[in-house]
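thread from #wetlab-drylab

HS: before we spend reagent money on co-crystallization trials with uridine-5'-diphosphate, can we at least see a predicted complex? here's what I'd submit
DV: go for it
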Amino acid sequence: MDKVNILGVHVDMVNISQATDCIMRFLDEDKFHAVYTPNSEIIMLAYKDEKFCKLLNNADLLTADGIGVVHASKILKKPISERAAGYDIARQVLQKMNYTDHKLFLFGGKPGVAEEAKKKLLEEYTDLNIVGTRNGYFKLEEEAEIVEEINNSGADIVFVCLGAPKQEQWIERNRDALKVRVAMGIGGSLDVFAG
Ligand code: UDP
């Protein structure tokens, strides 16, 4: 996949539908994949923090979340055709997953939000296989238990909704322990799904 280097962050030149196809391919590969959707704020953070920049570039898919990132790609003469926000990609992935056996875990948000999101999503995507939920407020020492809960659920994909950069750092810290094929950091999306 073609990438554009924006202040050191190598963003994939994909639109929402290409990002979705890519994630569906990841789900068929028996290995871990990290998906992040940086906006300008996150790219600026990476510009100032080399370690965080490396973490982002270690992702398997990095999409342009925000018109600022799309503009930057155009200035750099490697234009990304549209904003590919985490929420919009997640919606398309859900639509496709509804017709597969892939299992989804919803992680993040205040207590009750992931459960409410599950309920609402199942009204819309009736065959979706949501195998677990967990709120996003925890102590560092609870992390191993959260990973175990996700692993024991048999999930193939986890939506990690802790806000940036917390979610990207959580995924990076736990990538070796996670048995999922895809971990997507998608910010406040569970709040939106919950309505
Ligand atoms: N959140 C969480 N744990 C935390 C901090 C935040 O689960 O320790 C959740 C918060 O409840 C909200 C989301 O992360 O649902 C952050 O949403 P926001 O829109 O601020 O993130 P963005 O999409 O801008 O990255």
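DV: The domain at 3-194 is CATH 3.40.50 (Rossmann fold).
HS: ok that's useful, forwarding to the group
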